[in-house]
Amino acid sequence: MSDVKMAKRQKGKRLVKKIKPVANSTARVNQDMAVWEDISASTLIGLYIVQEGKFKFVNPRLEEIIGYSKEELLGTESLSYVHPQDRARVRVNAIRVLKNKELGYVPYEYRIIHKSREYRWIMENVTSIIFEGKLATLGNFMDITDIKKAEEALRHSEQHLKEAQALGKIANYEFNLATEGVIWSEEMYELFERDKHLPPPTSQEIPSYFIREEGAKFFDLSHRSVDEGKEVHQDITAILPSGKTPVFHISIRPVRDDKGHIYAVFGTIQDITERKKAEEQLRLQADLLDSAVDAIYASDEMGNFIYVNEAAVKLHGYTRSELMHMKMQDLDIPETVEKKHRELFKKGILSFEGTFLRKNGSRLPVEVHTRLTEHEGHQVFLSVGRDISGRIIAQQRLKESEEKFRALFEQSRDAIFITSEDGEFFDINQSALDLHGFTRQEMLGLMAVKLYANPADHKRFLRDIKTNGSVKDWEVKMLKKDKSEVYCLLTAVPRKDSTGAFIGYQGIIRDITQQKQMENALKTLSMLDGLTGIPNRRHLNETLENEWLRARRNQTPISILMMDIDYFKAYNDHYGHLAGDDCLRQLAKGLSEVVRRPADMVARYGGEEFIFLLPDTKLEGAINRAKRVRAKVKSLNISHAYSPVAGQVTLSIGVASMIPTDKLTVEDLIKQADECLYAAKQSGRNTVKYQV
Predict the structure, then answer these.
(1) Integer Rg of the chain from CA
(2) How confident is the model over 335-393, as pLDDT tens digits?
(3) CA-CA distance, 177 to 687, in Å (whole number)?
(4) pTM of the prediction?
(5) Of 231, 320, 323, 343, most Cβ neighbours within 10 A?
(6) Is 393 exposed, middle or buried (0-12, 13-18, 19+ CB in 10 A)?
(7) Are 603 and 527 a contacting pair, CB within 8 Å?
(8) Which residues are catalytic?
(9) Rounded to whole angstroms, what are the CA distances from 207 to 187, 210, 220, 233, 247?
């Protein structure tokens, strides 16, 4: 601080001391106003005298703090410059000082309104004095706005950190290397299922929270962080008191003192069990998705890729390994990512056009459809991207003239419409006519509400477009002229005239019926055996479990036939595996023809084994069905010259039938059928065995 400023501050302190009233407020400040004003002008504290509620004196520092000049302040109501929410409290304090003639009243804080209409925080000390022969108040205050803002920013920062940790389920701890003392955050107790009333575990207790081998990894990670002097990461499996074995992602970094010496380690721990499970499930579908023409991506909540298909690899020019170490944000324009995520979380589905980054630095225009779904409690983004560079070029050319725009309007694959304010069509393109099956004359003048399969959807459309200003990729069922339904994506915005007045709607309708059918087909395909086309073991297990539960509720019988091709290895060895595959397909087709009821099912159980599921079927009915199966196989007359039991392909069949009880399980039914199948093989094959 300069000598001049120091002298002013000391002078100000002497002034406050000089004018501080004695008991009963007998001092008179107005004895020498010339000296008083000269001294108060030098202080760094705002000073004022208020008498009968109005300013009688203000010093230059107060003028600076409040933003008004002395001429503007003198004679005005002092409370008019106090924030409305604080006026009552300031008035009470002033009255109390005047009535009780208190000396050195305890400082307090309140807000004043600056001339700029912004408010500032001040700390004030007020006391009573005699001024010009009358009782008045003397006040001095300091501007503490910057301090208040710093305190508020610190509170927000601490609150945001706490919220971020809770949202991300991130816990943290600190371990002192010298004292071996441990500090745990509140989230650590929740993550490790430890009683919050207990102290953090000691270094000897910590291994009990991990599987033995994993506990060693934890300590090795801490040592690595200290030895290398940097942050290290690893996924480690824990074992909790409840018996759960979650996977934790652990990050540990060294903590240094002011001399740069490492005296502790700081770690963060996040439960990533659900993400690991999601990754495994998505990996099982990779082969199927790799055959898609469009680029397909799956990413977690943070945008990390957990799957990309082969088309995505070709689209971006990166290797699969390179993409798997990137985020969706790395391929998009960063400033648009947050906005898209907010819209996706709000609606659950999002379609947009943008540009994606390629490895060579170029950007490729794409059309992206993204859906937010949940997999085993974990949110996953499923996205499909398509190269639309050709379409972008067409759109750029479209701007050249209205004539070209009209041509593209008519040639668009998507249905484009324009309606009046009440929803009457007055312009549509050819795709709209093709989509709904009307002629142009029939559709012009038609009310849009009549094309909704569900009238409630039209009300929802009007509500959403009024609330949000538009609807984007809104999935809805619409009607064709023949009343058949089509799945569509509807995008629409209000139309306004040059004055901004609402005059109708315009939008695009995309037929996604084929896409829906493909989704259903993919779901069905995942439940079928790839070779034979009949239900696979997974589908059988799910159906059998459901039928078992139903039979237990209704106390009805359920039966299965477990079938195995006799000497199939010999068949493959002599005829070749291609012939073996063809044999399996013929048998599957023949067995399917024996299915008589909707609930019956034939499935490939594995290799050359098949299972026939027969709900609501007693043992006698199951045996009869087994006989029909043998007859059907015989009628197929598939030659098998190397079978010791016949010159054609035959089956050995084990029959099991039960009425489920609390003591029986599906596994018991399968086990019994398997034992009967074994008995059929032991008795010479090409026969049926069952237990009574």
Answers:
(1) 41
(2) 566 677 677 777 778 777 778 888 888 888 888 888 888 776 778 888 888 888 776 76
(3) 74
(4) 0.33
(5) 323
(6) exposed
(7) no
(8) 608
(9) 19, 5, 12, 18, 15
